Amino acid sequence: MKSKNTCVIVSIVFCLFSISTSQAQFLNKLKKRVEQKVENAVIEKAADRASEKATKSMDKAFDSNPFGGSKEKAEASLVADSYDFTWKYSLKMTTKEGEMVFDYYLKPDASYFGFTTAVMESMFTVMDNENKVTVMFMESEGNNIGMVNQMPELDTEEANNESDQFKFEVLPEKTVNGFNCKGVKATNAEYEMVMYFTNETEVSFDDIFKNKTTKIPTQLKDYFDPNEKTLMISMDMQNLKKKKESATMECIGLEDVKRNIEKSDYKFM
Fold first, then answer.
1. Structural Rg of the chain based on CA atoms
2. Rounded to whole angstroms, what are the CA distances from 63 to 59, 124, 226, 264?
3. What does the DSSP 8-state code read for residue 27?
4. Which residues touch 34 (CB under 8 Å, ≥6 apart)?
């Protein structure tokens, strides 16, 4: 196995399509935790509104969010004192339901990333792979509320099994949205996916999932340099049996930013 980064690419690709089926339970549990654990009236009012917004927006967001969510709560002590980010990676997802843009916040060599989207309004989520938690930071009427859940595990065995079902083909390199990219086509009985990755960025999801190891398809083992960082720039996924479930993803922006989240600014529930 020559490339750790390619391992991560394959893991991320399958993670992109592992949409959780337990989101309704997660949202109900989230709402109950907000309602039950807020003690004073002012915060309770804000929490109720935050819960209502979360239920509406997260229902939509987690149904589409490539990284899903978890319903199992975790201790706030697992949350890092702060999370800082230096890059924003904007990914537009298009399905039959319409378009949604996810803004992912990254930092070179960090074991976490953050994301938000317009439908989440004032909610910012951090997935911390080192501490194995997903942290939601919400703002409502001047009140900052934090919630923490166990981070869903990336099932590498399942990823390997799914990978075995695909036929992989390398594609000619080409420029996509201003980035020089390498292409991969993956096909099985149900899906045909065309993906392009670049190594021209300072950030990727490699460091976040660096402890994950998956089996590399023979066709790809020499395609990516083991020392380079790779970032997906575009993907076209066609469901060969259910056309309405087809989707595309496209990087529409990559910019350097400065964003910092301080744990002490939030009341955890």
1. 19
2. 6, 16, 33, 30
3. H
4. 47, 48, 50, 51, 54, 145, 147, 269
